[in-house]
């Protein structure tokens, strides 16, 4: 397919230089399909960038000892990283609508690689904290890659392609702790950060080589761009429902993972390695992303949101029966339930993204930022509530909290369906009345 200006033909998928903001590239309109290599590049980039947020968690003990930092000071490393990521989603992700996403991804990849290298060379905990904040900010390149995939994908395959890219992102989240813990034990914590910096740098080179340029969808200045997010939030009920439902689901998800290690230690006398191994069970749930994308393409994302939230609620509830089982059987039940609710949470997220990206294509980066802001509010709330509930009512209290939050997420989707049905019936009656007049 050629550009409208025949004197300036564009390559099919590769753009090494953007000569004009008005150049018509494949990023401006979907092609019949995307090369598997490009989808794999996007999935890998999303996974490696978001994994940077979680590498530090299994390394806190050893890096604290090496830097002569106490547990409290070392504990601020993941805190600063998460803080940077939250700020990056809110303040930087919307820039994808204003500027070429390819350039933004390249800039963040360079900054992330430098921040990770800075972390590897940090002589004391203070520069490591500063580097961690920058790591979080730059790791939001994952939130630029996902809308880029949605833009490149043809509408009929958008759910499948976004689901595949989300699989890479989710595997980055779930496997980063396992890989970091093993590599840190074998080669030290500085080697983990150094290898992470190299992997992100190589990803940046691949993006520069193969990712096409993207035409900006708005000319708003930064202040107006941020203000427009308020308009988007107020104008689109489907966005608010998606953010609310995903946020409620994230409460239960975060409550489980933030209390699992303590429960395994107190109830089964198992260490952090066992808790990290549960991440492998969660990784199996990440397989839901491409399957959910395909189902959303065929049957609609609304159905997937209800199936996903329902599966998560059922999986959380089943864990409550563990009190009637022996120790090994209870652990097996938790593993199976973790696969189930991870599957449900990830499927629901992919479906919500498919819904949100279809609302207003010119504002995909801002819509994505709002959706993930709601999700991370739920994550933070779940971590706090999970710790409080576990201290007061134990593991069954956490199971109850997770089940209730997933049930509330399901209710948001079911109520929306009934409301839509009544609204559609009312619109039909109004149209018939207008026609008769």
Structural class: mainly alpha
Task: Name the average pLDDT.
Answer: 81
| End-to-end separation | 48 Å
Question: CATH topology of the largest domain, what is it called?
Answer: Growth Hormone, Chain: A
Portion in strands: under 5%
Regions with little confidence, pLDDT below 50 for 5+ residues? 1-32, 421-437
For the record, what CATH class of the largest domain applies? Answer: Mainly Alpha
Q: Give me the CATH architecture of the largest domain, please.
A: Up-down Bundle
Number of helices: 15
Biggest beta sheet attributes = none
The number of strands is 0
The gross shape turns out to be globular
Oligomeric composition of the shown chains? single chain
By CATH's scheme, which homologous superfamily of the largest domain applies?
MFS general substrate transporter like domains
**SSE series:** HHHHHHHHHHHHHHH
Query: Structurally, how many domains make up the residues?
Result: 2
**Relative helix content:** over 70%
- How large is the radius of gyration? 22 Å
């Amino acid at each position: 397919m050629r550009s409208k200006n025949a004197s300036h033909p564009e390559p099919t998928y590769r753009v090494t230089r953007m000569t004009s903001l008005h150049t018509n590239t494949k990023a401006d309109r979907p092609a019949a399909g995307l090369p598997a290599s490009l989808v794999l590049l996007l999935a890998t980039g999303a996974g490696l960038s978001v994994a940077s947020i979680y590498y530090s968690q299994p390394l806190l003990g050893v890096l604290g000892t090496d830097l002569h930092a106490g547990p409290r000071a070392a504990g601020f490393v993941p805190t600063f990283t998460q803080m940077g990521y939250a700020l990056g989603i809110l303040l930087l992700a919307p820039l994808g609508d204003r500027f070429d996403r390819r350039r933004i991804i390249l800039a963040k990849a360079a900054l992330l690689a430098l921040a990770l290298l800075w972390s590897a060379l940090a002589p004391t905990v203070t520069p490591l904290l500063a580097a961690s904040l920058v790591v979080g900010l730059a790791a939001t390149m994952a939130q630029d890659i996902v809308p880029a995939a949605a833009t490149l994908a043809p509408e009929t395959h958008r759910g499948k392609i976004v689901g595949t890219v989300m699989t890479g992102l989710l595997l980055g989240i779930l496997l980063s702790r396992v890989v970091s813990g093993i590599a840190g034990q074998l080669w030290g914590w500085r080697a983990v950060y150094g290898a992470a910096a190299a992997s992100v740098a190589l990803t940046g080179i691949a993006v520069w080589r193969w990712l096409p340029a993207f035409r900006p969808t708005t000319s708003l200045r930064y202040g107006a761009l941020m203000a427009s997010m308020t308009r988007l939030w107020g104008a689109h009920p489907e966005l608010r429902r998606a953010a609310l439902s995903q946020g409620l689901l994230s409460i239960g998800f975060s409550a489980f993972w933030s209390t699992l290690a303590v429960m395994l230690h107190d109830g089964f006398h198992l260490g952090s390695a066992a808790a990290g191994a549960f991440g492998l069970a969660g990784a199996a749930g990440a397989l839901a992303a491409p399957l959910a994308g395909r189902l959303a393409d065929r049957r609609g994302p609304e159905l997937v949101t209800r199936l996903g939230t329902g599966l998560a609620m059922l999986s959380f509830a089943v864990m409550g029966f563990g009190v009637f089982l022996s120790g090994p059987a209870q652990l097996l039940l938790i593993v199976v339930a973790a696969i189930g609710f991870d599957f449900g949470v990830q499927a629901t997220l992919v479906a919500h993204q498919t819904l949100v990206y279809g609302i207003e294509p010119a504002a995909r980066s801002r819509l994505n930022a709002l959706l993930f802001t709601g999700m991370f509010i739920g994550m933070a709330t779940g971590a706090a509530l999970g710790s409080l509930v576990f201290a007061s009512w134990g593991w069954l209290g956490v199971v109850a909290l997770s089940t209730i939050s997933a049930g509330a997420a399901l209710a948001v989707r079911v109520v929306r369906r009934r409301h839509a049905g009544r609204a559609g019936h009312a619109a039909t009656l109004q149209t018939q009345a207008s026609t008769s007049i």
